[in-house]
Amino acid sequence: MQIPILATTLVAAVSLLSIGCSSGTKSNEVKVSGKVTIDGQPIEIGSVSFVSADGATPTGGGNIKDGTYVAFVAPGEKKVLVLGNKLVGKEKLYDTPDSPTRDKYEKVTPPEYNAFELTPLTASISGAQDDLDFELLKKVKARR
Amino acid sequence: MSRISSTSVSRRGFTLVELLVVIAIIGVLIALLLPAVQQAREAARRAQCTNNMKQLTLATHMHLDTYPDWFPLGAMNGANNPTKVENGNSYSRITWHVLLWPFIEQTALYDNYDLNQPFYATPNIDQLRVPVNAYYCPSDQVGAVQGPTADPTYWRAMGNYVGNMGNTHLHQNGADQAIFNGSPFGVRHTYRMSQIIDGTSNTACFSEIIIASANAVNDNRGDILNDEGSPGFMSILTPNSSSPDQCRQCKASAMDVNHNDYRSIPCTIAADNSEMQIAARSRHPGGVIVSMCDGSVRFVGETISQSVWQGVLSGRGGEVVQLP
């Protein structure tokens, strides 16, 4: 009866090994959240992107909804890009009389906040955080 | 009769132990093989996707031979159509897929297309409803269209392949102009092969995106035949980034942080095209397929660093980068 025991141990060991081979999570991204305002007003809809300042990690980020955002970011020094919009009505898809329509939004953030070279916002991410707030200004002073 | 029974004295069978050992060995082999079989299916789809992208890049090379040194126009947007661009031709609203038709053996479609009319006008829209195989990555939704239910007048085929539009946004705003580092494709602009001074083997040509919403007209990703849909991809967001694409239209589930779609195709609204940006995304585990301007095709992992990705997409950035 020694060999069946040996065989079963072998089978058990191999199946345990193959369980260990299943894929893990995508990366070392941590959860970061907070509030985003422009001139004190919460941003209705938009996104926050954390672009690596030294280019060493992939870009992470997340959506803004009603003034708060949740993002997943790899730790490191970041330049922060913010895009904010508000809903203003409907617009046509094509230049024809019977064109279907879509929601029309209006941008509330200056383009400098959405350009890597110009954004004045930076962040240093070392771990999960839930109070990383960004206060934007309509009259932005671009970094140059 | 009696002879047979007398000779079969030492007939030997398998013992239970031996049988168990054999079964155990077979079990182990199957356990090793099974995951490989499952992966083989995805590997086959990936190979076909790679091939599609290779064909598109070769078609681009034929375009470069036919119209000496010019890449096809990435896209033409709506203002003052038809507009003359650098290569001397005039275009109305269009994307590069149409301009590559003659080179992927879709001459019939091209012959019936009127370049002076926008893509949504007759007879053009009828040509855009043909779901050409070369539009689709088999790992995503082959044959996806917007469909007559969603839009009876203007529906068209969708697709996965997008052109490299560089390191800024779909349309460059004022803030972008200063930092634009060149690309093979652009909106309202055509570029020459000789303008890719980083070298054709170091500059991306095509990559892929995920079709966000088949049988609907509520999301730009996958609307490859519309200049305002998704003709290109840009490098601000790395492949499969957790940071959302910025589109004119996003389907609700792609904006909902609690929805499954948000994890694969996150999206947020961009109020105008100068803020639109779209990341390369795919259903292949771990990364996206990218073709380079010299015709080689690579698999790029989603953990690629921002600086390498930006260097690969720029045509004249002068970055010293090599795809891993």
UniProtKB/TrEMBL annotation, chain A:
It comes from the Bacteria. It comes from Blastopirellula marina DSM 3645. This is Uncharacterized protein.
From TrEMBL, chain B:
Gene3D superfamilies: Glycoprotein, Type 4 Pilin. Residues 38-305 form the DUF1559 domain. Signal peptide: none annotated. This is DUF1559 domain-containing protein. It comes from Blastopirellula marina DSM 3645. It comes from the Bacteria.
